TrEMBL record:
Originating organism: Auxenochlorella protothecoides (Green microalga)
UniProt name for this protein: Putative monogalactosyldiacylglycerol synthase 1, chloroplastic
Record-annotated Glycosyl transferase family 28 C-terminal domain positions: 8-110
Molecular function, one GO term: hexosyltransferase activity
Origin superkingdom: Eukaryota
Gene3D superfamilies listed in its UniProt record: Glycogen Phosphorylase B (3.40.50.2000)
Lineage: Eukaryota, Viridiplantae, Chlorophyta, core chlorophytes, Trebouxiophyceae
Entry-linked InterPro entries: Glyco_trans_28_C, Glycosyltransf_28_UgtP
């Protein structure tokens, strides 16, 4: 990846679900700057093949991946992440200082994560792929200051030692 170009990470979850293909299409039509797009399709091999066969506009460098085990590397290298509202992904994004657009959620299980992200001003929720692309265009353009501020808030909210803190707390409870 080229660190001089903006990078967008589009994650379809382990099964490559959600509006991934429509979001790629919308980004290709709406963005008018050079950018990189990493699309993680999980185990959805048909989606990987379809996206790899597509032709993309000049200035749009696309990296299509299946299931990956190095997600933190992609997160640290990206400026924006588009993903569903999974708690693990949100936690990792916060630690990486990565503003996000949540575009889907599993009812009941992930629903409460959306207000957490929006109210803490570390990202937005938008299902419509065209509107997602317009948000990204703004963040990479005249709203770049908003993107930088969100990245700072992400780093403040992120808790890289959370697991160790939980273990310490549980240990002290057992010892008491």
């Amino acid at each position: 990846m080229d660190p001089r170009k903006p990078a967008i990470l589009l994650v379809g979850g382990g099964e490559g679900m959600g509006p991934v293909e429509r979001t790629v299409e919308a980004l290709s039509k709406v963005l008018d700057v050079e950018f990189q797009l990493v699309v993680v399709c999980g185990r959805n091999h048909k989606l990987v093949e379809r996206l790899k066969r597509r032709e993309y506009p000049a200035g749009m460098q696309v990296h299509v991946k299946g299931f990956v085990d190095n997600m933190p590397e992609f997160m640290f290298a990206s400026d924006i992440m588009i993903t569903k509202a999974g708690p693990g992904t949100i936690s990792e994004a916060l630690i990486c200082g990565l503003p996000m657009i949540l575009n889907a959620y599993i009812p009941c299980q992930e629903e409460a994560n959306i207000p957490y992200v929006v109210e803490n001003e570390v990202g937005l929720f938008e299902r419509n792929p065209h509107k997602v692309a317009l948000i990204v265009k703004g963040w990479l353009g005249d709203q770049a200051g908003q993107l930088r501020a969100m990245a700072q808030r992400c780093r403040k909210l992120g808790q890289p030692d959370a697991l160790f803190n939980i273990v310490r707390e549980l240990s002290s409870m057992v010892a008491a």
